Amino acid sequence: MLWETWLTMARACLVVACAIPLCELLERQSRNLTSPWSKRLFCCLLIAPVIFPRLLVAYVWAGRGFDRPQAEAIYDLILLARLVPLGLLALRMIPASGPSMESWQTAELAGNQLLLSQLKHQRSFATWQRRLPAIGLLWLLVFHEFEMSALLKTVTWTDRLFVAHAGGLPLEHSLRLSAGPLLIACGAVVLFWATWLWLGRILPPRLPKPSLFIDTRPASPPAVWESVMGWVWPCSACGLAVIYPLAILLPNLVSAGSSVWLDGRRWWSLAIELLTGLALSAAAAALVLALALAVGRSSQQREYRLPRVAAMVSTLLAGCGSLIVGLCLLSLFQQPFARLLYDTPVPLCLGFALKQWPLAMVLVEALRSQPVDAAERLSRRLGTMSQPGRNYGRWLTWQTRDRWIVAIYLILVASNSQDVILSSLLAPVGLASGTVRLYNFMHYGRSVSLTLEALILQLAPVVLSLGLWRLLGPQRP
Q: What digits encode the pLDDT tens for the residues 358-368?
Protein backbone atom coordinates (compact mmCIF):
# COMPACT_ATOMS: atom_id res chain seq x y z
CA MET A 1 0.00 0.00 0.00
CA LEU A 2 2.87 2.37 0.74
CA TRP A 3 4.47 1.75 -2.64
CA GLU A 4 1.20 2.42 -4.46
CA THR A 5 0.74 5.67 -2.54
CA TRP A 6 4.20 6.99 -3.43
CA LEU A 7 3.78 5.97 -7.06
CA THR A 8 0.44 7.79 -7.23
CA MET A 9 2.10 10.88 -5.73
CA ALA A 10 4.85 10.76 -8.35
CA ARG A 11 2.28 10.41 -11.14
CA ALA A 12 0.29 13.36 -9.76
CA CYS A 13 3.41 15.54 -9.70
CA LEU A 14 4.32 14.53 -13.27
CA VAL A 15 0.82 15.20 -14.61
CA VAL A 16 0.63 18.59 -12.86
CA ALA A 17 4.09 19.57 -14.14
CA CYS A 18 2.87 18.93 -17.69
CA ALA A 19 -0.60 20.38 -17.17
CA ILE A 20 0.26 23.84 -15.80
CA PRO A 21 2.27 25.00 -18.88
CA LEU A 22 -0.56 23.71 -21.08
CA CYS A 23 -3.12 25.60 -18.99
CA GLU A 24 -1.18 28.85 -19.33
CA LEU A 25 -0.71 28.29 -23.06
CA LEU A 26 -4.42 27.66 -23.57
CA GLU A 27 -5.30 30.69 -21.44
CA ARG A 28 -3.23 32.93 -23.69
CA GLN A 29 -4.78 31.28 -26.73
CA SER A 30 -8.31 31.88 -25.41
CA ARG A 31 -7.54 35.57 -24.89
CA ASN A 32 -6.07 35.94 -28.39
CA LEU A 33 -9.13 34.53 -30.15
CA THR A 34 -11.32 37.24 -31.64
CA SER A 35 -13.83 35.40 -33.84
CA PRO A 36 -17.00 34.19 -32.04
CA TRP A 37 -16.95 31.03 -34.15
CA SER A 38 -13.36 30.22 -33.16
CA LYS A 39 -14.14 30.86 -29.49
CA ARG A 40 -17.10 28.45 -29.56
CA LEU A 41 -15.06 25.78 -31.32
CA PHE A 42 -12.18 26.24 -28.86
CA CYS A 43 -14.51 25.92 -25.86
CA CYS A 44 -16.21 22.82 -27.30
CA LEU A 45 -12.87 21.11 -27.91
CA LEU A 46 -11.81 21.85 -24.33
CA ILE A 47 -15.06 20.86 -22.63
CA ALA A 48 -15.77 17.66 -24.59
CA PRO A 49 -13.08 15.51 -22.86
CA VAL A 50 -14.32 16.68 -19.45
CA ILE A 51 -18.00 15.85 -19.92
CA PHE A 52 -17.45 12.61 -21.86
CA PRO A 53 -17.88 9.66 -19.44
CA ARG A 54 -14.53 8.47 -18.16
CA LEU A 55 -15.70 4.87 -17.89
CA LEU A 56 -16.29 4.74 -21.65
CA VAL A 57 -12.83 6.17 -22.31
CA ALA A 58 -11.13 3.61 -20.06
CA TYR A 59 -13.36 0.82 -21.41
CA VAL A 60 -12.20 1.46 -24.98
CA TRP A 61 -8.51 1.95 -24.23
CA ALA A 62 -8.38 -1.01 -21.85
CA GLY A 63 -9.55 -3.26 -24.68
CA ARG A 64 -6.38 -2.51 -26.64
CA GLY A 65 -4.41 -4.90 -24.43
CA PHE A 66 -1.51 -2.58 -23.58
CA ASP A 67 1.32 -3.69 -21.34
CA ARG A 68 2.14 -1.79 -18.15
CA PRO A 69 4.33 1.06 -19.57
CA GLN A 70 1.96 1.68 -22.49
CA ALA A 71 -1.09 1.65 -20.21
CA GLU A 72 0.65 4.13 -17.90
CA ALA A 73 1.40 6.48 -20.80
CA ILE A 74 -2.18 6.31 -22.12
CA TYR A 75 -3.55 6.86 -18.62
CA ASP A 76 -1.41 9.95 -18.08
CA LEU A 77 -2.43 11.39 -21.46
CA ILE A 78 -6.12 10.82 -20.71
CA LEU A 79 -5.69 12.52 -17.34
CA LEU A 80 -4.09 15.51 -19.06
CA ALA A 81 -6.91 15.68 -21.60
CA ARG A 82 -9.55 15.72 -18.86
CA LEU A 83 -7.78 17.90 -16.27
CA VAL A 84 -6.18 20.69 -18.31
CA PRO A 85 -9.57 22.44 -18.87
CA LEU A 86 -10.19 22.36 -15.10
CA GLY A 87 -6.79 23.91 -14.48
CA LEU A 88 -7.59 26.55 -17.09
CA LEU A 89 -10.82 27.32 -15.21
CA ALA A 90 -8.86 27.72 -11.97
CA LEU A 91 -6.45 30.12 -13.66
CA ARG A 92 -9.26 32.18 -15.15
CA MET A 93 -10.89 32.53 -11.73
CA ILE A 94 -7.81 34.30 -10.30
CA PRO A 95 -6.89 37.54 -12.12
CA ALA A 96 -3.27 38.18 -13.02
CA SER A 97 -1.73 40.50 -10.43
CA GLY A 98 1.65 42.06 -9.89
CA PRO A 99 3.43 45.37 -10.36
CA SER A 100 1.52 47.88 -12.43
CA MET A 101 2.63 49.38 -15.72
CA GLU A 102 3.32 52.68 -13.95
CA SER A 103 5.79 50.95 -11.60
CA TRP A 104 7.67 49.37 -14.49
CA GLN A 105 7.81 52.65 -16.42
CA THR A 106 9.02 54.62 -13.38
CA ALA A 107 11.78 52.10 -12.64
CA GLU A 108 12.87 51.98 -16.30
CA LEU A 109 12.93 55.79 -16.66
CA ALA A 110 14.87 56.19 -13.42
CA GLY A 111 17.29 53.41 -14.37
CA ASN A 112 16.88 51.92 -10.90
CA GLN A 113 18.16 48.35 -11.29
CA LEU A 114 17.37 47.47 -7.67
CA LEU A 115 13.73 48.48 -8.10
CA LEU A 116 13.53 46.57 -11.40
CA SER A 117 14.88 43.48 -9.68
CA GLN A 118 12.29 43.82 -6.89
CA LEU A 119 9.50 44.22 -9.44
CA LYS A 120 10.64 41.07 -11.25
CA HIS A 121 10.62 39.12 -7.97
CA GLN A 122 7.13 40.43 -7.14
CA ARG A 123 5.87 39.43 -10.56
CA SER A 124 7.34 35.94 -10.13
CA PHE A 125 5.71 35.59 -6.70
CA ALA A 126 2.38 36.79 -8.10
CA THR A 127 2.61 34.25 -10.94
CA TRP A 128 3.22 31.36 -8.54
CA GLN A 129 0.46 32.52 -6.21
CA ARG A 130 -1.92 32.47 -9.17
CA ARG A 131 -0.76 28.99 -10.18
CA LEU A 132 -1.12 27.38 -6.75
CA PRO A 133 -4.93 26.83 -6.76
CA ALA A 134 -4.69 25.13 -10.16
CA ILE A 135 -1.74 23.04 -9.01
CA GLY A 136 -3.54 21.94 -5.84
CA LEU A 137 -6.78 21.14 -7.68
CA LEU A 138 -5.12 19.03 -10.36
CA TRP A 139 -2.82 17.25 -7.90
CA LEU A 140 -5.73 16.17 -5.70
CA LEU A 141 -7.80 15.02 -8.68
CA VAL A 142 -4.96 12.82 -9.94
CA PHE A 143 -4.14 11.53 -6.46
CA HIS A 144 -7.73 10.37 -5.82
CA GLU A 145 -8.62 9.13 -9.33
CA PHE A 146 -9.98 5.59 -9.38
CA GLU A 147 -12.20 4.41 -12.25
CA MET A 148 -9.85 4.83 -15.21
CA SER A 149 -6.81 3.53 -13.35
CA ALA A 150 -8.69 0.39 -12.30
CA LEU A 151 -9.80 -0.45 -15.85
CA LEU A 152 -6.42 0.36 -17.40
CA LYS A 153 -4.71 -1.69 -14.66
CA THR A 154 -2.30 1.02 -13.59
CA VAL A 155 -0.98 1.12 -10.03
CA THR A 156 -2.89 3.44 -7.66
CA TRP A 157 -3.57 3.30 -3.95
CA THR A 158 -7.30 3.83 -4.55
CA ASP A 159 -7.60 0.72 -6.71
CA ARG A 160 -5.54 -1.36 -4.27
CA LEU A 161 -7.61 -0.30 -1.26
CA PHE A 162 -10.97 -0.64 -3.02
CA VAL A 163 -10.15 -4.12 -4.31
CA ALA A 164 -8.99 -5.19 -0.86
CA HIS A 165 -12.15 -3.85 0.78
CA ALA A 166 -14.43 -5.44 -1.83
CA GLY A 167 -12.53 -8.69 -1.37
CA GLY A 168 -13.52 -8.94 2.28
CA LEU A 169 -11.08 -6.75 4.17
CA PRO A 170 -12.76 -5.57 7.39
CA LEU A 171 -13.89 -1.96 7.44
CA GLU A 172 -11.60 -1.12 10.37
CA HIS A 173 -8.56 -2.37 8.45
CA SER A 174 -9.63 -0.43 5.34
CA LEU A 175 -9.91 2.77 7.36
CA ARG A 176 -6.51 2.10 8.89
CA LEU A 177 -4.93 1.62 5.47
CA SER A 178 -6.51 4.85 4.22
CA ALA A 179 -4.88 6.86 7.02
CA GLY A 180 -1.56 7.18 5.16
CA PRO A 181 -2.99 8.54 1.89
CA LEU A 182 -5.33 10.79 3.89
CA LEU A 183 -2.43 12.33 5.81
CA ILE A 184 -0.49 12.86 2.59
CA ALA A 185 -3.45 14.51 0.84
CA CYS A 186 -4.31 16.73 3.82
CA GLY A 187 -0.63 17.61 4.22
CA ALA A 188 -0.56 18.66 0.57
CA VAL A 189 -3.65 20.83 1.10
CA VAL A 190 -2.03 22.52 4.11
CA LEU A 191 1.19 23.04 2.14
CA PHE A 192 -0.66 24.65 -0.77
CA TRP A 193 -2.65 26.92 1.53
CA ALA A 194 0.40 27.94 3.58
CA THR A 195 2.44 28.71 0.47
CA TRP A 196 -0.42 30.70 -1.06
CA LEU A 197 -0.84 32.79 2.09
CA TRP A 198 2.93 33.30 2.42
CA LEU A 199 3.18 34.56 -1.14
CA GLY A 200 0.23 36.84 -0.44
CA ARG A 201 2.11 38.40 2.48
CA ILE A 202 5.17 39.05 0.31
CA LEU A 203 3.22 40.76 -2.44
CA PRO A 204 2.21 44.41 -2.00
CA PRO A 205 -1.31 44.98 -0.68
CA ARG A 206 -4.07 45.70 -3.14
CA LEU A 207 -5.32 49.24 -3.34
CA PRO A 208 -8.94 50.27 -3.95
CA LYS A 209 -8.11 50.99 -7.58
CA PRO A 210 -7.66 47.55 -9.15
CA SER A 211 -5.61 48.76 -12.11
CA LEU A 212 -2.71 49.72 -9.84
CA PHE A 213 -1.81 46.07 -9.20
CA ILE A 214 -2.86 44.47 -12.46
CA ASP A 215 -0.14 43.94 -15.03
CA THR A 216 -1.43 46.24 -17.74
CA ARG A 217 1.63 46.23 -19.94
CA PRO A 218 0.78 45.52 -23.59
CA ALA A 219 0.91 41.80 -24.29
CA SER A 220 3.36 40.73 -26.95
CA PRO A 221 1.84 39.01 -29.99
CA PRO A 222 1.78 35.21 -29.63
CA ALA A 223 4.52 33.19 -31.24
CA VAL A 224 3.69 30.93 -34.15
CA TRP A 225 4.32 27.77 -32.15
CA GLU A 226 1.98 29.00 -29.39
CA SER A 227 -0.83 29.61 -31.87
CA VAL A 228 -0.29 26.18 -33.40
CA MET A 229 -0.10 24.36 -30.05
CA GLY A 230 -3.13 26.30 -28.85
CA TRP A 231 -5.16 24.36 -31.42
CA VAL A 232 -3.14 21.14 -31.62
CA TRP A 233 -3.59 20.22 -27.98
CA PRO A 234 -7.41 20.69 -27.78
CA CYS A 235 -7.86 18.73 -31.00
CA SER A 236 -5.54 15.96 -29.78
CA ALA A 237 -7.21 15.78 -26.37
CA CYS A 238 -10.66 15.62 -27.94
CA GLY A 239 -9.52 12.90 -30.33
CA LEU A 240 -7.94 10.87 -27.52
CA ALA A 241 -10.80 11.09 -25.02
CA VAL A 242 -13.89 11.53 -27.21
CA ILE A 243 -13.56 10.88 -30.94
CA TYR A 244 -11.53 7.67 -30.75
CA PRO A 245 -13.80 6.00 -28.13
CA LEU A 246 -16.88 6.87 -30.17
CA ALA A 247 -15.20 5.68 -33.37
CA ILE A 248 -14.60 2.30 -31.74
CA LEU A 249 -17.95 1.88 -29.96
CA LEU A 250 -20.49 3.11 -32.50
CA PRO A 251 -19.38 1.06 -35.55
CA ASN A 252 -19.52 -2.11 -33.44
CA LEU A 253 -23.16 -1.42 -32.67
CA VAL A 254 -24.01 -0.66 -36.29
CA SER A 255 -22.28 -3.80 -37.58
CA ALA A 256 -23.99 -5.97 -34.97
CA GLY A 257 -27.40 -5.18 -36.47
CA SER A 258 -30.38 -6.82 -34.90
CA SER A 259 -28.31 -8.86 -32.44
CA VAL A 260 -27.66 -5.76 -30.38
CA TRP A 261 -31.30 -5.21 -29.48
CA LEU A 262 -32.25 -6.42 -26.03
CA ASP A 263 -35.55 -7.84 -24.93
CA GLY A 264 -38.22 -5.65 -23.37
CA ARG A 265 -37.47 -6.68 -19.82
CA ARG A 266 -33.81 -5.69 -20.20
CA TRP A 267 -34.77 -2.29 -21.58
CA TRP A 268 -37.12 -1.82 -18.62
CA SER A 269 -34.35 -2.77 -16.18
CA LEU A 270 -31.96 -0.29 -17.85
CA ALA A 271 -34.58 2.46 -17.64
CA ILE A 272 -35.11 1.80 -13.91
CA GLU A 273 -31.36 1.87 -13.24
CA LEU A 274 -30.97 5.09 -15.20
CA LEU A 275 -33.92 6.89 -13.59
CA THR A 276 -32.96 5.73 -10.09
CA GLY A 277 -29.42 7.00 -10.49
CA LEU A 278 -30.61 10.30 -11.93
CA ALA A 279 -33.13 10.80 -9.11
CA LEU A 280 -30.55 10.27 -6.37
CA SER A 281 -28.02 12.43 -8.21
CA ALA A 282 -30.57 15.21 -8.74
CA ALA A 283 -31.56 15.27 -5.07
CA ALA A 284 -27.94 15.47 -3.89
CA ALA A 285 -27.03 18.08 -6.52
CA ALA A 286 -29.99 20.29 -5.54
CA LEU A 287 -28.90 20.23 -1.89
CA VAL A 288 -25.27 21.01 -2.69
CA LEU A 289 -26.06 23.77 -5.16
CA ALA A 290 -28.52 25.47 -2.77
CA LEU A 291 -25.90 25.49 0.00
CA ALA A 292 -23.16 26.71 -2.36
CA LEU A 293 -25.34 29.58 -3.62
CA ALA A 294 -26.22 30.52 -0.03
CA VAL A 295 -22.55 30.59 0.89
CA GLY A 296 -21.77 32.64 -2.22
CA ARG A 297 -24.39 35.24 -1.29
CA SER A 298 -23.23 35.40 2.31
CA SER A 299 -19.61 35.92 1.23
CA GLN A 300 -20.53 39.50 0.37
CA GLN A 301 -20.81 40.15 4.11
CA ARG A 302 -17.23 40.69 5.23
CA GLU A 303 -17.72 39.74 8.87
CA TYR A 304 -19.76 36.62 8.17
CA ARG A 305 -17.81 33.46 9.02
CA LEU A 306 -19.80 30.96 6.97
CA PRO A 307 -17.78 31.43 3.74
CA ARG A 308 -14.53 30.77 5.62
CA VAL A 309 -15.95 27.65 7.22
CA ALA A 310 -17.27 26.50 3.82
CA ALA A 311 -13.83 27.05 2.26
CA MET A 312 -12.18 24.99 5.01
CA VAL A 313 -14.74 22.18 4.61
CA SER A 314 -14.22 22.24 0.83
CA THR A 315 -10.46 21.86 1.09
CA LEU A 316 -10.84 19.14 3.72
CA LEU A 317 -13.25 17.13 1.55
CA ALA A 318 -11.06 17.65 -1.51
CA GLY A 319 -8.16 16.23 0.48
CA CYS A 320 -10.18 13.21 1.58
CA GLY A 321 -11.45 12.06 -1.80
CA SER A 322 -14.42 9.86 -2.66
CA LEU A 323 -13.01 6.57 -1.37
CA ILE A 324 -12.16 7.84 2.10
CA VAL A 325 -15.46 9.74 2.34
CA GLY A 326 -17.34 6.58 1.36
CA LEU A 327 -15.51 4.43 3.92
CA CYS A 328 -16.11 6.99 6.68
CA LEU A 329 -19.83 7.23 5.85
CA LEU A 330 -20.06 3.44 5.72
CA SER A 331 -18.58 3.26 9.20
CA LEU A 332 -20.82 6.07 10.46
CA PHE A 333 -24.09 4.52 9.31
CA GLN A 334 -23.13 1.17 10.82
CA GLN A 335 -23.15 2.72 14.27
CA PRO A 336 -26.19 2.02 16.50
CA PHE A 337 -27.51 5.61 16.41
CA ALA A 338 -27.58 5.69 12.57
CA ARG A 339 -28.24 2.06 11.70
CA LEU A 340 -31.90 2.74 10.85
CA LEU A 341 -30.75 4.81 7.86
CA TYR A 342 -28.19 2.27 6.65
CA ASP A 343 -30.47 0.58 4.08
CA THR A 344 -31.95 3.84 2.80
CA PRO A 345 -30.79 6.24 0.06
CA VAL A 346 -29.68 8.76 2.72
CA PRO A 347 -26.04 7.56 2.97
CA LEU A 348 -25.62 7.60 -0.80
CA CYS A 349 -27.20 11.06 -1.20
CA LEU A 350 -25.03 12.37 1.63
CA GLY A 351 -21.96 10.84 -0.01
CA PHE A 352 -22.83 12.47 -3.33
CA ALA A 353 -23.31 15.80 -1.57
CA LEU A 354 -19.98 15.62 0.26
CA LYS A 355 -18.16 14.53 -2.88
CA GLN A 356 -19.61 17.34 -5.00
CA TRP A 357 -19.30 20.11 -2.42
CA PRO A 358 -15.77 21.25 -3.49
CA LEU A 359 -16.77 21.21 -7.19
CA ALA A 360 -19.97 23.13 -6.47
CA MET A 361 -18.08 25.77 -4.49
CA VAL A 362 -15.51 26.20 -7.29
CA LEU A 363 -18.17 26.53 -9.99
CA VAL A 364 -20.33 28.93 -7.97
CA GLU A 365 -17.27 31.03 -7.13
CA ALA A 366 -16.29 31.08 -10.80
CA LEU A 367 -19.79 32.32 -11.65
CA ARG A 368 -19.79 34.89 -8.86
CA SER A 369 -16.35 36.21 -9.81
CA GLN A 370 -17.57 37.27 -13.25
CA PRO A 371 -17.96 41.04 -13.54
CA VAL A 372 -21.45 42.49 -13.59
CA ASP A 373 -21.95 43.64 -17.15
CA ALA A 374 -24.38 46.15 -18.65
CA ALA A 375 -26.90 43.42 -19.56
CA GLU A 376 -27.28 42.30 -15.94
CA ARG A 377 -27.69 45.87 -14.70
CA LEU A 378 -30.26 46.47 -17.42
CA SER A 379 -32.20 43.32 -16.45
CA ARG A 380 -32.48 44.60 -12.88
CA ARG A 381 -33.88 47.92 -14.03
CA LEU A 382 -36.31 46.29 -16.44
CA GLY A 383 -37.68 44.17 -13.60
CA THR A 384 -39.26 47.30 -12.10
CA MET A 385 -41.05 48.38 -15.30
CA SER A 386 -44.18 47.30 -17.15
CA GLN A 387 -45.01 43.73 -18.17
CA PRO A 388 -43.15 43.77 -21.53
CA GLY A 389 -40.12 45.23 -19.78
CA ARG A 390 -40.27 42.58 -17.05
CA ASN A 391 -40.47 39.83 -19.66
CA TYR A 392 -37.38 41.16 -21.37
CA GLY A 393 -35.70 41.56 -17.97
CA ARG A 394 -36.39 37.90 -17.13
CA TRP A 395 -34.91 36.84 -20.43
CA LEU A 396 -31.77 38.93 -19.81
CA THR A 397 -31.48 37.52 -16.28
CA TRP A 398 -31.66 34.01 -17.70
CA GLN A 399 -28.95 34.79 -20.26
CA THR A 400 -26.58 36.48 -17.81
CA ARG A 401 -27.00 34.40 -14.63
CA ASP A 402 -29.74 31.78 -14.33
CA ARG A 403 -28.75 29.57 -17.25
CA TRP A 404 -25.26 29.21 -15.78
CA ILE A 405 -26.75 28.15 -12.44
CA VAL A 406 -28.78 25.53 -14.32
CA ALA A 407 -25.58 24.46 -16.10
CA ILE A 408 -23.80 23.97 -12.76
CA TYR A 409 -26.72 21.90 -11.49
CA LEU A 410 -26.72 19.68 -14.56
CA ILE A 411 -22.95 19.22 -14.31
CA LEU A 412 -23.36 18.02 -10.71
CA VAL A 413 -26.18 15.64 -11.66
CA ALA A 414 -24.27 14.10 -14.57
CA SER A 415 -21.12 13.75 -12.47
CA ASN A 416 -22.96 12.00 -9.63
CA SER A 417 -24.70 9.59 -11.99
CA GLN A 418 -21.32 8.32 -13.23
CA ASP A 419 -19.88 7.63 -9.78
CA VAL A 420 -18.61 4.13 -8.97
CA ILE A 421 -17.00 4.23 -5.53
CA LEU A 422 -19.83 5.81 -3.52
CA SER A 423 -22.51 3.87 -5.38
CA SER A 424 -20.69 0.62 -4.68
CA LEU A 425 -20.10 1.35 -0.99
CA LEU A 426 -23.29 3.15 0.05
CA ALA A 427 -26.10 2.12 -2.32
CA PRO A 428 -28.87 0.23 -0.45
CA VAL A 429 -29.97 -3.22 -1.51
CA GLY A 430 -32.16 -3.00 -4.60
CA LEU A 431 -30.91 0.45 -5.63
CA ALA A 432 -27.51 -0.53 -6.97
CA SER A 433 -26.44 1.77 -9.77
CA GLY A 434 -26.08 0.43 -13.29
CA THR A 435 -22.69 2.15 -13.41
CA VAL A 436 -21.36 -0.22 -10.74
CA ARG A 437 -22.59 -3.25 -12.68
CA LEU A 438 -21.00 -1.92 -15.87
CA TYR A 439 -17.74 -1.28 -14.05
CA ASN A 440 -17.64 -4.87 -12.79
CA PHE A 441 -18.34 -6.37 -16.23
CA MET A 442 -15.85 -4.08 -18.00
CA HIS A 443 -12.98 -5.94 -16.34
CA TYR A 444 -13.78 -9.05 -18.40
CA GLY A 445 -13.55 -7.50 -21.88
CA ARG A 446 -15.90 -6.01 -24.45
CA SER A 447 -19.15 -7.33 -25.87
CA VAL A 448 -21.88 -5.82 -28.02
CA SER A 449 -24.55 -5.90 -25.31
CA LEU A 450 -22.18 -4.44 -22.72
CA THR A 451 -21.21 -1.68 -25.14
CA LEU A 452 -24.85 -0.82 -25.75
CA GLU A 453 -25.66 -0.69 -22.04
CA ALA A 454 -22.54 1.39 -21.36
CA LEU A 455 -23.48 3.92 -24.02
CA ILE A 456 -27.05 4.19 -22.72
CA LEU A 457 -26.23 4.45 -19.01
CA GLN A 458 -23.18 6.68 -19.42
CA LEU A 459 -24.14 8.97 -22.28
CA ALA A 460 -27.82 9.42 -21.42
CA PRO A 461 -27.17 11.74 -18.41
CA VAL A 462 -24.80 13.87 -20.48
CA VAL A 463 -27.17 14.08 -23.46
CA LEU A 464 -30.17 14.82 -21.24
CA SER A 465 -28.24 17.53 -19.39
CA LEU A 466 -27.16 19.23 -22.61
CA GLY A 467 -30.68 19.00 -24.03
CA LEU A 468 -32.32 20.44 -20.92
CA TRP A 469 -29.81 23.27 -20.79
CA ARG A 470 -30.70 24.22 -24.34
CA LEU A 471 -34.48 23.91 -23.87
CA LEU A 472 -34.98 25.51 -20.46
CA GLY A 473 -35.35 29.21 -19.97
CA PRO A 474 -37.79 31.87 -21.17
CA GLN A 475 -38.14 32.61 -24.84
CA ARG A 476 -36.78 35.87 -26.14
CA PRO A 477 -39.61 38.44 -26.15
A: 888 888 877 77
